[in-house]
Amino acid sequence: MDTIADPDIQFDEKGICNYYYEYKKAEADLHTGEQGWKELEALAAEIKEAGKGLPYDCIMGLSGGVDSTYVAYLAKQLGLRPLAVHFDNGWNSELAVMNIENIINRLGFDLYTYVINWNEFRDLQLAYLKASVVDIEAITDHAIFATLYRLAGEKKIKYFLNGTNVQTENTLPKSWIHSKSDHVNIKAIHKAYGQLPLKTFPFSNAKVKRYYREVMGVRSISVINYVDYNKQQVKQLIQKELGWRDYGGKHYESVWTRFYQGYILPEKFGIDKRKAHLSDLIFGGQISKAEALEELAKAIYDPKQFSIDYEFVLKKLGMTAEDLDAIIKAPPRSHYDFDYEKPIDERYPVLKPIKSIYRTIFPVK
After folding, report:
1. Among the CATH numbers 1.10.357, 3.40.50, 3.40.390, 3.30.420, which is that of 18-337?
2. What is the pTM of this model?
């Protein structure tokens, strides 16, 4: 990580950045190894008990990427009965489809695929491109979580397994992202640049999430944070056990994500997400800084693959090369240039003491 990746980065007198200390603090709170597995087995026992008499005792998203694939593998090892949910936003690579099929067949899980309305989603993606905001992936992440929580509620599932983990994705500058739960920002950006009404897009908000968590008791568990997660070793494991094949990049199971991270982010915003992901692997001792620099020296996008993806993206979004070039050259804008979901104590300052009491009684899990 450097000042190009993040202008707000801070270094101490030893030349060590804030992200290292943040990683080590988060890592110190983890219980992995033998202790972590015992805690995970105890959680699995709770999940099984809560799911007695139901078709599924937990729910999980399955993209076909390393993290979600490993969560599925761990769920099987723990004897859980998850409903695997795949969110199809129209950008799956053929390899992702094949990997998901292998995972489901070998583990014996049921798969629910939510196929989003493509015309609406395309219109929303185009709105985000025209708005020149950085976190175009926020709309997919928002819809995924909204879908998972809705399904959990419908099927009375109390536990949601997720692949979020400290070991490979703790480092992420705030300037690279926007809140995934901010439905107000999504609607504001679409209102400014969208053309079609969003009749079926799965929106959610903080109130709905609180209802699922605090009334229905849905609990999210970061399964990978309980195990020693070595990325390279896990890749070898899932290749052997599940017939999984590598995409060549984090979250590259999606053609759009590959194009967004490999072209739009570096060209328009000067962001190379590999710097954050590789930094986490350095912090955790999985690779050396020299190895990371060697990886960064490689092209962020294979030229042949980029050429194929470039034409595919233009055709799928109904754009010309000139349209996309104008978007890339337009100055970036902040998500906060548009309306956004303000915290309740910011909207109603008088409620701030009440919120503090409420959080004491109902702490965020």
Report:
1. 3.40.50
2. 0.90
